Amino acid sequence: REGWGLRGAILGSDQFTIFVKFTGPRESVMLEAGAFEAFCASIALHEHSSGARSESGPQAAGGSAGGSAGGISWDVPDGWEVGAERQMRLVTFNSGAVECYLSVLGGDGGGVVGNIQRWVGQLGLTPPTGAEVAALPTVEILGVVSPLLEATGEYSGMGAVQPIPDTTMLGIVCLLRDRAIFVKMLGPSAAVSAERGRFLDLVASMHMEEEDRVLVL
């Protein structure tokens, strides 16, 4: 765009890269230079030993542990274990052959319809239309009513060497003001069915942390 300006900052490390960009009419960008620098200076990292805070190991009967990352907190469902740290994920949970994870992307992360179509395609099924996605059942997550995908097929996503038959996926795309939150569970159909209630418990327990002005990685 003619007459526009840009101020940008990049912080890189061996674990992540942070990009901060400010664009607009050149005069406005110049006037807000001080505010941009103050914003950059305000960004902080929580000093966690890993990307997510939670108790390790299986949950004992009679209580569940909590965890948090990316400004989001949750309760760990009973019987679920927190898995190893993975790139692009806030946290990974394991329960037998079932895996559940939370991830986040900036902006709309590809949108609700686009992601659900992609997930269904990973199961070897015909991707739904936008109208079909809109007709999916919904759940409330982080105060946002979001569609819940539940589908079974031959899974071939995430680097699978060959399609894995009889795989069930539960998936949610939640669009917030500035980011997209994904909650996804995969595994053998019978096992996923047995964990469905705990998946919904996890979703219901999720809430935003109060430190809105701190960037948490």
Q: What count of helical segments does DSSP give?
A: 5
Rg from alpha-carbon coordinates: 20 Å
Distance between the termini: 32 Å
Structural class: alpha+beta
Helix content: 10-25%
Report the β-strand fraction as a percent range: 35-45%
Sketch the topology as an H/E string, one letter per element.
EEHHEEEEEEHHEEEEHE
Number of strand elements: 13
Q: How confident overall, as mean pLDDT? A: 86
- Quaternary state reads single chain
Shape: globular
- How are strands sequenced across the largest beta sheet? 6-7-8-12-11-10-9
Instruction: Pick out the low-confidence regions.
Output: 47-63, 211-217
Largest sheet: 7 strands, antiparallel
Key words describing this protein structure:
single chain, alpha+beta, 4-stranded antiparallel beta sheet, 5 helices, 23% helix, disordered C terminus
Describe what you observe in this structure.
This protein has 217 residues and is an alpha+beta fold. It is built from five helices and 13 strands. The strands form three sheets. It has a seven-stranded antiparallel sheet, sandwiched between helices. Strands 3-4-5-13 form a four-stranded antiparallel sheet. A two-stranded antiparallel ribbon has the order 1-2. Strand 7 and strand 8 form a beta hairpin. The C terminus is likely disordered.
Question: What's the helix and strand layout?
Answer:
Layout: E1 4-12, E2 17-25, H1 26-31, H2 33-42, E3 53-54, E4 66-69, E5 72-75, E6 81-82, E7 91-95, E8 98-106, H3 112-122, H4 130-134, E9 138-141, E10 144-155, E11 164-175, E12 179-188, H5 189-205, E13 207-208
Antiparallel strand pairs: 1-2, 3-4, 4-5, 5-13, 6-7, 7-8, 8-12, 9-10, 10-11, 11-12
